[in-house]
Every structure is written in structure tokens, then in C-alpha cells.
């Protein structure tokens, strides 16, 4: 039976992530530049996570340790390599993905951007198959075709005033970069506690963006409304979104949590219509339905067959998440590669 609290937590996480593009648009209207947005977002999120880890030492341990098990002993060099990879994920992959996302957000509607970005679960599935990490099934082939057709409908249905070719290209670049990030993150997500990994990723991204700000400069001279929206992005759409996803994941299991995350672009599209006056036409809505359906299908994992006649129990150890926030939420459910 589906855990009601877990369901609410997963949906809350998706809503927090889905609101990020809206917060970004409002921050731009308040005079915040993309460079300032990225720098403040990652720096503030890294600081909040660091304080959280100091106040809650238990978050520094993995599930086995928290349940009374022993820590896995690794050579010091291997441990340092894992930590360096985690920081590098933020410094290179996440910083690049977020930069592409928020650059696209400057040029196109938040609702269109969220739908283009949400092709990433299908891209991860394709990449995993090509790399030999996963296999194609008839259902996944159907999902790939549906996602491709849905994305085409979303783009073709865009009105001339709301569609920006460069913005769409940047959005797709963000999806591709995020896909690569997820595949690389798969090498370390099992070896670090999730909040520790998230803090390292955020710190790495903040370091890259801080270095870029030192070279190119960044304008932080904007008013209180701009700072308010930046705090919303860092605290609500990054830290809170990540923590509620982890909590929901533990209660629902990886496949259910991943499918519930398809609520995210629905939230973005709804909030964009309510606050920014953005609308999707009938053709785009049809395309959106295809994209979200495909994203859900590729994340469904068949129940294991070795316990026939017994209720299927989610293996929470299968879930691997490297968090950022979707304009970056970096999360992967290993069961289906999302």
C-alpha cells in the first residue's frame, strides 16, 4: 500500500523544484543577472547544507551506519577520489547544467523550458542502453517514440512570440548535460550519504561560479525583492526540495518517487500560467502529456520475480540520488536511470 506521507513528501519536493523556474523569472524581473542568481543560489544552498550537517551529525552517516551497522572501510586514496569526484560533479557538470538552464530561462517561457528539460529521463535511458547499463523493452521503445513526438509537438505548437530557437537549444543542452551528470554521478552516489554528497556538489558548483565571478565580475547591487527570490530558489527549490525528496524516497521506494516527480513540470506550467501569464496551446498540451507519460514509463521497474506470491517491497538501496535541483535537481533513481 502506498505510504500517504511519502506520497505527500514526493509531491512537495516536485512542487518545490517546479517553482524554481518561476522564482528565476521573478528574480530576473527584480534586476538579478544569471551570474548573480547562480552564485548566490549555490553558495547559500552549500552554506545551509553545511550548517545542517553540523547540527545533525547523523546525516553524515549512511543508512547502514544509522541502523547500527558498520561503516564500509575504504582506502584513503579511494575515499579522496570519491570526494574529489563529488566536488567535480558540482564544479563542472552541475555548474554547466545550471548555467544552460538559467540562460535558457532568460529567453523563453518557463513552461516550455520545463518540458524540454524533462526529456532527460528518456535521454538517460537511451544513454544507459548504449553504454550497456540497461536494456530496451517494448514499453521503453514506445516511451522513446512518445517522448520524441511529444517534444516535437511542444516546439511546433509554440507561438512565434514565446518560442526562442536559441533558448530551446540551451534548454536541450541543459537536458543533455544533466544526462551526462547523472551517468557520471552513478559512480559515487552509493558511496556517500546523500546530504553529504549534495553539500559537496553544491560547494563545487559555488566554487566554479565564484571563480567565474572573480574573473568576469558579478553585479550584486539589486534590491530586496531580488534577494527574496534568490533565497526562495536556494532554500525552497534546492534545499527543501532535496530533503523532502529524500524523505519521500525512503517511504515510497525509488520507482514510485521517480514517477511522482513528473508532477514537477505540471507545477511549473500551472504556476507560469497563474503568475506570468504563460499559456500552452492544445497541441503543446498534447505534447506535454506524451513527454510526461514517457518519463513515467521509462522509470517503471518490474517487480522482482524471485518472491512470487509475496508483496513487493521497494529496495531503498536501489535508489541513488545526486541532488541539485532541476534547473537542476540532480537526482537519479538507479532502477530506471532517472
TrEMBL record:
Transmembrane segments: 37-55, 82-105, 111-131, 143-160, 166-184, 196-215, 227-249
Domain EamA positions: 6-155, 166-298
Keyword entries, A-Z: Cell membrane, Membrane, Transmembrane, Transmembrane helix
InterPro entries: Diverse_Substrate_Transporter, EamA_dom, EmrE-like
Keyword Chloroplast belongs to the record: no
Chief localization: membrane
Localization per record: Cell membrane
GO cellular component: plasma membrane
Bilayer disposition of the protein: Multi-pass membrane protein
PANTHER family, per the entry: EAMA DOMAIN-CONTAINING PROTEIN, OS03G0707200 PROTEIN-RELATED
Family stated for the protein in its record: Belongs to the EamA transporter family.
Name of this protein: DMT family transporter
